[in-house]
Amino acid sequence: MAILSKSEHRSLFVELLGWFENKDRLFIAMEYFEQGDLRKHLDKPLGEEVVQKITKQVLNGLQVMHGNNIAHRCIKPEDIFVVSMSPVWVKLGDFGISKHVHGDTALRSQVYTECYAAPEVLDLDPNGESSVYTNAVDIWALGCVVYELLTAEKLFGSLIQIMGYCYMETFPEQKLGRVTTPTSDAVKSFIRHLVVLNSNGRPSAAEAADDIWLEYVRDYPEPSRFNVPLAEIHEPRGDQS
């Protein structure tokens, strides 16, 4: 994951600080987040503006990953870490089952978190012709996360519910009735667009970031608003010894 460790991406991804190993284990030191991950903040629905900013920042990270042929494969609130909620700044992390696709490699393994799993990972895609899937699984998962951030409830509470959507091929519209925001029509359309059964029908991360629901959201957090010098975010750290 050296690509994600580049200095220009440090505002998007959890920072790897170092590692060491003994004869039994590998230990990895990662950036610490005092405010934890998004799960810690989901005791109630988040405001729409907050969710818009989180979504745009996650999509910025996915654009970098997908642009380098890397699929995250485990997008969920627990893997989105909070630098600050006011102003909003989050980072993508937990790349344990991420995969860099190159050469003859492909995405085939059924690795997923139950409530965020795309149909093709579960071999439920009615249009699927093989066990190979694409980074569109991250887009599906993000759609599920956006719904959860806005309602504090899961869009699909179990694999049975995902299977029901796949076999009936009918989106659970009744659940979208719980999304009550100033731009509810726009965000409902956004969620439907991401959680499409046919993976080929989902937008890319770049296309999703250009959706009308995110039209007026800044691309990146402003480091100056965190009292952090810009150089500390976008330049490699020097020798601290």
From TrEMBL:
Q: Name one GO cellular component term.
A: cytoplasm
The answer to whether keyword Nuclease applies is: no
Q: Which SUPFAM superfamilies match?
A: Protein kinase-like (PK-like) (SSF56112)
Q: Which domain of life is it from?
A: Eukaryota
Q: Which UniProt keywords apply?
A: Kinase, Transferase
Domain named Protein kinase is located at: 1-214
Q: Which InterPro entries does its entry note?
A: Kinase-like_dom_sf, Prot_kinase_dom, Ser_Thr_kinase
Task: Please report the name of this protein according to its UniProt entry.
Answer: Kinase-like protein
Species in which this protein is naturally found: Choiromyces venosus 120613-1
Q: What broad taxonomic lineage does this protein's source fall under?
A: Eukaryota, Fungi, Dikarya, Ascomycota, Pezizomycotina
